[in-house]
Amino acid sequence: MISRLRDALVAEVCGTFLLVLFGTGVVATAVLTGAQVGLWQVAAVWGFGVTIAICATAGVSGAHLNPAVTLAMAVFRGAAFPRSRALPYMGAQLVGAVLAGCVVLAVFSPFIERFEREHQLVRGERWSEASAMVFGEYFPNPAVFPQSVFSDSPDYALVTPLRALGVEAFGTAVLVFVIFALTDARRVPVGGAITPLLIGFTVAVLISLFAPLTQAGWNPARDFGPRLVAFAAGWGEVAIPGPRNGFWVYIVGPLAGGLVGGAVYQATLGRVRVAAEG
Which end of the chain is more exposed for a tag (fewer CB within 10 A), N or C? Predict the structure, then answer.
């Protein structure tokens, strides 16, 4: 059992690393180089990154790659996923996310510095979230609403911390609901071999809808891991706790939303299947 857990944790590190590398990498290219054309292109790369990460690791760990998914699985599918594995899984996911953040920093550091010079940003000071958004997430999205980093801008108030919390919780709830539906062993497989693609496409659709508001995290490890890297790389309080002390939104929102999504599935489609079997 120890070796199996060790293998699963290695898979969670590797899978989360891939997911966050592809995801934050495409954000970096969009913000720093303009290589991506429009939000959907960023979302599509994110979605394919999720798909690749799931395909690479699902056979070993189940490819949670997200503390919100792990928590929901532990609460609602304890028979298939032992609850004792929840915290180790979450720790492994955070390690993978930190490693991905380090790679993005190493690769894109010259472009970040150029971006800061061009926009007269001083790393770690007010408004430098315009570059820190390559790592952690902010609301509203500084790339969509450039003036939102200024407290006297009308855009600043478009998304309050409470609204951001609600968006992150809702998006994660939808994602976990879909994951539960696609991985319910009691049902005839809907997606079969393309289940990872369907999950990745769900992420892409959610990003295309909600990224302008919160950058669409849906994953505490995806946000907090790279955010730790940004904190250590000089962004300091702009990274943690953030300009509106808002870093907690991307932890609490997805964790709560994941539980809601799992509960809704169990009370609706999950209950229908159980009734049919009875």
Answer: C
